[in-house]
Amino acid sequence: MKIVLPGGTGQVGTVLERALTAAGHEVVVLSRRPAGPGQVRWDGRTLGPWAGVIDGCDMVVNLAGRSVSCRYTPANLRAMMDSRVDSARVVGEAIAACVRPPRVWLQMSTATVYAHRFDAPNDERSGVIGGSEPGVPGYWAYSVEIAKAWEREQERADTPHTRKVALRSAMVMSPDRGGVLDVLLWLTRLGLGGPVAGGGQYVSWIHEHDFVRAVEFLAGREDIAGPVNLAAPHPVPQRVLMGELRAAWGVPAGLPATAWMAEIGAFVLRTDTELLLKSRRVVPGRLLEAGFVFDHPQWPQAAADLVRRVRTRPRDRRPAPEAR
């Protein structure tokens, strides 16, 4: 297949490009700053010569959007919104203009669209969309609005010959430098990988191999369209996630942190505590119903595999650049 990855230079794009290329597919990455063969320049907002690589391709997987690993200032939140909505809009325009449109358009979304909750898991059918939960910071609702606008832009695109799927993805765990696992392991090695604010908030995650396999699975399932949760079937509380990661790395303990301590740490890391404190209890209802079988459904085994690969990764491996 010929596959186009708008915004494919970030962590998730790197995971996909590496796996799909190894599987023998032709992969073209659209990037604001192309840096090598197989990469084509685009601005993520306006049609241009880049649209020609979509005409005649088999699949588009749009991953573009400003990284969420930042302080949630008004300017950064607006950049998150604009980069996602603009890129989805212009990808839709490019597909609509194709003489030979792709068969399927997979549009990145996020599990953050669901409500902060502990009582029950969120699947696509019965899950509660967030934005109005009591007792959470008001700006968390804006993250939900970003996700809703992101998906809405794909829905409204006039692409009758292209099936559309919104990937409500949990955190993709890979051994690459610069990814979420890299940060969690850094905290673990420093002895800081303990419970945050009690550690009861759920973390939804997916192993990189299962993420790639799910993308390939959805590419071939003509009967699946609309939102699909890309998450392992067993989300775990944050204290369990970090406990198993410490066990895999061989660190006996991790210092706990209160919410205000997490605020200080997030400020130092130039990120936001929503990523730590929101309970994302998301399960892959539609994937499981369709017969998808996860290779890494449980976190302890996934953590052990990922840690083993981190320990054996090349020393000169560089961080994955920010997705655009």
Give an overview in words:
This protein starts with a strand and ends in a 13-residue tail after the last helix. The longest helix has 23 residues, at 74-96. The chain has 10 helices and 11 strands. With 324 residues, the chain is an alpha/beta fold. It has a 7-stranded parallel sheet, with helices on both faces. The protein has a two-stranded parallel ribbon with strand order 7-9. Helix 4 packs across helix 6 (238-249) and helix 6 crosses helix 10 (299-311). 46% of the residues are buried. The protein has helices spanning 11-22, 74-96, 140-156, 180-189, 208-220, 238-249, 259-269, 274-277, 285-289, 299-311, and strands at residues 2-6, 26-31, 39-41, 59-62, 104-108, 163-169, 171-173, 202-203, 205-207, 226-230, 236-237.
The end-to-end span amounts to 23 Å
* CA radius of gyration: 19 Å
How would a crystallographer describe the biggest sheet? 7 strands, parallel
Mean pLDDT over all positions: 92
Structural class: alpha/beta
The strand order across the widest sheet is 3-2-1-4-5-6-10
What string gives the helices and strands in order?
EHEEEHEHEEHEEHEEHHHHH
Query: Which consecutive residue ranges, at least 5 long each, have pLDDT under 50?
Result: 316-324
How many DSSP helices?
10
Shape: globular
Please state the oligomeric state of the protein chains shown: single chain
Residues in β-strands, percent: 5-15%
Q: What's the number of extended β-strand segments?
A: 11
Helix content: 25-40%
